[in-house]
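Backbone-to-sequence.
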């Protein structure tokens, strides 16, 4: 097996890997993350951020919620400023650890050096 073939096999393995968590654990975490995302947007989110709220509520899986993080960050930055939004997002990002391959520990973040 050549180098390029090995990389292709590794990437395909990551993309098609099944979660190591039980189905009920994954569903529980999905709902916990969904609830947290909705909660951080606040009580007025249904009127101010309705399209985002609907996308969060109807996200099909944890991957969809993962990709909605940037929209949540933008909304939080608009409401509270970027510094506070980063603090809130750090907690949300931690909720994805172990469930998404890209969810890195915060210690690797370039923003922790501030």
């Amino acid at each position: 097996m050549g180098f390029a073939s090995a990389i292709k096999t590794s990437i395909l393995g990551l993309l098609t890997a099944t979660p190591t968590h039980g189905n009920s654990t994954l569903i529980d975490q999905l709902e916990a993350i969904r609830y947290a995302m909705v909660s951080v947007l606040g009580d007025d989110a249904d009127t101010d951020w309705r399209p985002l709220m609907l996308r969060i509520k109807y996200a099909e899986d944890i991957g969809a919620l993962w990709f909605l993080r940037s929209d949540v960050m933008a909304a939080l930055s608009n409401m509270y400023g970027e510094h506070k939004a980063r603090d809130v997002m750090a907690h949300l990002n931690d909720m994805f650890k172990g469930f998404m391959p890209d969810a890195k520990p915060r210690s690797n973040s370039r923003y922790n050096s501030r």
